[in-house]
Amino acid sequence: MSALQLIWFAILAFLVCGYAVLDGFDLGVGVLTAFARDDRRRQLLIRAISPFWDGNEVWLLAAGGASFAAFPPVYATVFSGFYIPMMLLLFALIFRAVAIEFSIHEPLKLFRLSWHFVIAGASAVALFMLGLVVGNLLNGLQLDAAGNYTGRVRDLLNPLALTTALLNMAMMTTHGALYLALRAQGELRTWVQRVAGTAWGAYVAMVVAVLMAATTARSGLMANYTAQPVLWTLPAMALLAVLAVGLLNHRGNHRAAFSVSVLAILGLLGSAVVAIFPRLVPAVDPARSLTIAGSASSDVALQAMLVVAALGMPIVLAYTAWLYWTFRAPVDAEPPRSASPRTDQAK
Amino acid sequence: MLDPVLLARIQFALTVGFHFIFPPITIGLAWLIVWLLTKHRLTGDDSYQRLARFWVRIFALTFAVGVASGLTMEFQFGTNWAAYSRFVGDIFGAPLAAEVIFTFFLESTFLYVLVFGWDRVSPRVHWLSSVLVAIGSTMSAFWILVANSWMQTPTGYVIRNGRAELVSFWQAVLSPSMIPRFLHTLDAALVTGVFFMLGISAWLVLRRQAVETSRYAVRLCLFLGFGLSVVQLGLGHLHAVQVAHTQPEKLAAFEGLFQTQAAAPLLIFGLPDPDNATVKYAITIPGGLSLLTDMRTDAVVRGLNEFRRDEWPPVLITFFSFHLMFIIGMALIAFPALGLLLLWRRQLFESVWGRVYLWLAVLVTPLPVICNELGWITAEVGRQPWIVYRVMKTADAISVSVPASHILASIIIFCGIYGLLFLVWLLMLGREVRKGPSEGETEPSGEGSA
Question: What percentage of residues in chain A have a pLDDT greater than 70?
Fold first, then answer.
């Protein structure tokens, strides 16, 4: 494994983590749309994510594009092996993208309601499918010598994959509620704090379930940890962070709760990465796993792409930060569109 | 028995074909919005801003469908074309990743500022956002065409370790068909945006909505539409000359040229018959094709007889899509020319002929979109049976782990979803257009007298 390959592995990990903490919260807010009391509240929820969701989703495309360019066999195996989950994820993202944009332009309450439920459903499906893919990667895939998936579709519904999928839903719903708390004041904040508490309960339960299911994995998840016991500190800190999220939310310390939630997500993802390293796609037959060294693109390609990433990503990070700063005001600070001040005066 | 190669190709064609309706519209509109906002900044005239607000709303709706249907493309190389992805990822992945990093982030961020930032950022930042969205969408076209051009005319690579490996980044980016293809496609996108604005503005004039600003938009689009369509004739020629020299069997299929010959004739009319390698009912200009490809009437142009029969592109599809594209392209020059004539004679907004013309302008709105699709069919079908020209066959490129039934099921769902999306887009578009740009605009009472 060359340094260049390792750098690209780090870039891919960075993009996946960026996707998880960023699109994670807007997908979570999407799920919460289903539980919001009325149209005004649902609109506030959408308003809280509308500047950011599209840019956040681009992180998924960036991670996909980076895997295509830097580790082509990984991109090929994951996307073709998970054909049905990937297609369902795609359909969910298509519906969600259109529903968010169209719901904002929709003046009729009934149609808006339909769009809001599409957003909620599509967000839930997307989170489930993403978790299912990650869980199956952790579990190990049945691959042939060329790297093609040879298992059945229903093999994808194993305990580890299902629990990871549910964990992803609970974790991101919690994350989304904590994000909303940052962007809300008044009664909306009270509501999301309560919702975050409930979702956090499911989050903790699913973390435990995933840990139990992980013992059934076929991919030798413990090998790295057994070889280097010091690595256990990472999952240990991730678990502490998961617990701290609930405590901080309960105390109403929203900024800290959201920050720790980010750390918890990164810690859990990082623990998974440590478990499969240096593989990218663990196979049931260890010789067939797709590794960093075995699936990397040529050095010329990796160098060229490194220049592209080094030129592009700092600029992306800069204007993304600018966007978050510019649109940071609480979403319920201004009156909703449906009740303009003029109508109030008319009464 | 279902053929997974055929199904994967049908799925790709359907999903790209649907997606390709929208980006040309939004690329064209993006630059028109930049124009309107620049005029507003320079003149301080609020009517330009009202017009820009209207078009930004329409842009946002169209862009949403473009983004949603574009997601499919990013997934599809891996889901349906895994063998292709493994073989060419070393080269093909780079432009896709560059597209994401340089353009998708830019577009998604500044689109929001453009659509919702009117009163929340300074006018200067808002104007800059419109420029960045336009640049982003144009650069997005650049990178995806880099990828496509490499499939048409691969350069800068070597076959090693059982895959195509990058040797020179810039040679791969600037493959021989890249610049002609980019210019041709970009101009097509601008023409599409202009005709889209022309059609909707003509309708608004006919409905007497925001008449003054809509008339301005009609005039603007007539000038731009004529100029850009004329330029397209030259760019299309440039592209075809490149095809003649880099993919001769494709040009032979464009032109129905079965025999290699000096002083090759240009077909004015005819029906190619690939089985007998002849063209029926041919009317030709002797030496015309040689003149076009090499600037000499006696130049040799290679015909399909030089190539193995099983490596011919599908002749009829390539031939007819090419010629239909050309015919529509000529109509796209003639139509705005007629409009400019009416404008010059002061009849466009004043006479019954003007009204007829404006109704026609509404009807021809989808013509450039159809023309784009035909151009795309010409380029892609003309490359068959290769997925990467003379490097990899389409039949060898699919995902072997995906059963045909799964592809078929996803095709059916795609048809449903895209049909629904298209319908909703049309409905939302119709509603925005009926509202018109007149929000806050009080029409002078004598306005409708024209």
Answer: 96
Average pLDDT score, chain B: 90
pTM here?
Answer: 0.90
Has residue A338 been placed in a domain?
no
User: Both tokens of residue B81?
Assistant: 């074309």
Residue type, B160: R
Tokens of A35: 């539980």
Q: Which of residues 320-339 of A touch B (CB under 8 A)?
A: 320, 323, 326-327
Write the pLDDT tens digit of every residue in B9-52: 999 999 999 999 999 999 999 999 999 999 999 998 888 999 99
* pLDDT tier at A109, thresholds 50, 70, 90: confident
The answer to the question of residue A342 being in a domain is no
Return the structure tokens found at B326.
């050309």
Beta strands in B182-265 (DSSP E): 261-262
Residue A37 lies in a domain: yes
- Please list the residues that pair with A290 across neighbouring strands: A281
Range among B68-82, B143-157, B432-446 with highest mean pLDDT value = B143-157
> B interface mutation test: which of A43, A56, A67, A94 has the most B CBs within 10 A?
A94
A148 to chain B, any CB pair closer than 8 A? The answer is: yes
Residue A141: CB atoms within 10 Å = 27
Closest to A15 (Cα-Cα) out of A74, A78, A62, A69: A62
Dist CA B89 CA A236 (whole Å): 38
Q: Which of A123, A204, A206 is nearest to A159 (CA)?
A: A206
How big, in percent rounded to 5, are the helix, strand and coil portions of chain A? 80, 5, 20
Pairwise CA distance, residues A14 & A319, whole Å = 18
Containing structural domain, residue A288:
3-331
- What tokens were used for A11? 């870039």
In a domain, A57, yes or no: yes
Q: How many domains does chain A have?
A: 1
| Average pLDDT score over residue span B368-377 | 95
- Interatomic CA distance for residues B106 and B158, integer angstroms: 33
Note whether B64 contacts A102, CB cutoff 8 Å: yes
Residue-level pLDDT at A139: 92
Least CB–CB distance from B74: residue in A64, A312, A319: A64
- Put simply, whether B386 touches A (Cβ < 8 Å) is no
